[in-house]
Amino acid sequence: MLIINCPYCGERPEIEFRYGGEAHIARPADPSALSDAEWTDFLYNRTNPKGKHAERWRHIHGCGRYFNAVRDTVSDFFVTTYKTGEARPDIEESAR
Amino acid sequence: MSEAARVSGPDLGHGHPYPGVSLAALAEGSKPSASASLKLLPATARLVFRGREAAIGPAGEAFGVALPREACRFNTNGTRSVLWLGPDEWILLAPGEGPAPLFAAIETATAGLPHALVDVSSRSVAFDLSGPKAGFVLNQGNPLDLSLDAFPVGMCTRTVFAKSEIVLRRTAPDSFVVDVWRSFAPYVWQLLEEARRGA
Ligand SMILES: [Zn+2]
């Protein structure tokens, strides 16, 4: 079983967590100023990298909190986890 | 379903008969065991408190047990306990008491301070699982490391047991309390019984 390091609770089994999609996607402050293409981009288009991916996870069967993780989409290895609101750690992106 | 098939009993009170397997009957039929005994705990007042810094101290003072600030730990004073559930979330337990006076006391102490206090007394029921094989029994449905080093006395956490969410805490080296949502309780109880047979 995969072990995920919750920034609040520490190392816990994968089964306690839920995936929450790509991280660091801020909702536009003024949606009505956006073109349809820009709005579509915000809603649907994700980077989908082959390699290191910053994504949201929720420790739903634990402390209940959302946090962010950098996970390698090739190996499923969790490089690091950090609290929501913190900047993405400086980890080099793998080749896409 | 006939009324006779419905559950009654102190732990399933509050006017909500549980329509399904009788937890009280399951508990009565549970045989004590030297390796791990399972016991239904009496009704408990349960309050969930969520709040920012300013309200945390006063809430603990009003309840008589300080809210633990360390992750996954609980504090106890007499019969009352407070469990850390999240960075801004605690559950306050008072076995054998009614929630109303506690609720009022905490609301008075935290008046004007941003917080949420919810009475969830009837939401769940609690089991005590005790014996030298208690951790082994729990591990049949729970993936945590329950060794004393990794899960010491005084530790608590929300986690899972098979397909149900539970709140687990260790009250003594060989004793755990499992708090489980009412409608999942017979499911968890029966799986624990099954696990005990192998202990
Ligand atoms: Zn957590």
Automatic annotation (TrEMBL), chain A:
Gene3D superfamilies registered for this protein in UniProt: Folate-binding superfamily
Domain of life the protein comes from: Bacteria
Record InterPro entries: SoxD (IPR006279), SoxD_sf (IPR038561)
Protein name: Sarcosine oxidase subunit delta
Organism expressing this protein natively: Ancylobacter crimeensis
Automatic annotation (TrEMBL), chain B:
Organism: Ancylobacter crimeensis
Upper taxonomic lineage: Bacteria, Pseudomonadati, Pseudomonadota, Alphaproteobacteria, Hyphomicrobiales
Name this protein carries in UniProt: Sarcosine oxidase subunit gamma
Pfam families: SoxG
